[in-house]
Amino acid sequence: MWSWLSVALSGYISISASESNHVKQAAMFKTMSLLMLLIMLWSQNALVGIDAWWVSLGLLVSMAADWLYLVKRHLKLCFVGFILAQLCYSASFWVKLSGDIVWWLPAMLLGVGVVAFFLLLPKIDRLIFPVVMMGIVLLQLNWAAGEVWLLNGGIANGLGFVGSLTLTLSAVLLAISDYRPSMYKGRYLVSGSYLLAHSLITASLII
Asked: What residue intervals traverse the membrane (predicted)?
């Protein structure tokens, strides 16, 4: 319990520091939040499997990408880092799957994604290519997490699916926030949902 509160507090300090333009402090506490998630993952009593290795790699890549994003350096490399982290999380779900695939889930996710893309198109016209790339990666992440939940059930798998959906929501909010910096409480919404997504995906392997 205290570990999760520490993660939340560190994340809140990071967001507050970012709002106050204390970039290095924001980057440090954001990295600390993800590092604490990594430590919690590896300090559990249960045997760590290949899925935990993929989540761990995703957390490490996210730390580097977040730092680059906050200090506004090597933004293309930062974008690649976010994509790689999402692929790592995807792999952690795909390795759990075996047997038949539920095809209606990707069809539904694709339909929702297309509708959301055209609704947001007027707001992200300068970001179409990166949005489409990240959208495809997030689509298959949600598909993998949703498949695991539908086939295996359980609270842990449900948290993983909700975490993947929250990560998608965070990416959408980030695209809108970058286009409209005046969005009310934009940084709190983006960073808060982003940290929540990492926490839920990690929690799916701990509880």
From this structure: 52-70, 77-95, 101-120, 127-146, 158-176, 188-206
